Amino acid sequence: MKSYRKELWLQAPARRSFILITPQVEDCLRESGIREGLCLVNAMHISASVFINDNESGLHHDFEKWLEKLAPEKPHSQYAHNSGEDNADAHLKRTIMGREVVVAVTGGQLDFGPWEQIFYGEFDGLRRKRVLVKIIGE
What we know:
The protein has one domain: Sandwich (Jelly Rolls). It is an alpha+beta fold and about 140 residues long. It has helices at about 20-30, 55-70, 90-95, and strands at about 1-10, 15-20, 35-45, 50-55, 100-105, 110, 115-120, 130-135. Helices cover about 25% and strands about 40% of the residues.
């Protein structure tokens, strides 16, 4: 069995944003040479997420509104975590959206359902962060 590992570095243009990373993950799969196996993609920061969903701007807007209702950024004083920090909401949003995804690799391709794409969700941005891509298989 082969194993491949690569870190993708991202810098979101805003405190919160969703970034399509499917093309970068597909590049990793091509580099790996793995044709059958599994591809793990995970955020390596506690205030960021990796998830699979539709690449549709209205849905992303709905995610943003929904997450802000569940864990509003302000007032910062509402969170015990925010003594000296201001990102408790980002930790909660990450928990809701998830840390990682695993996608089957079949015939050298990510084995997606219709409309599925991989996204990086940033909830405390404006600095560089990493996403790990780990692919195992034959």
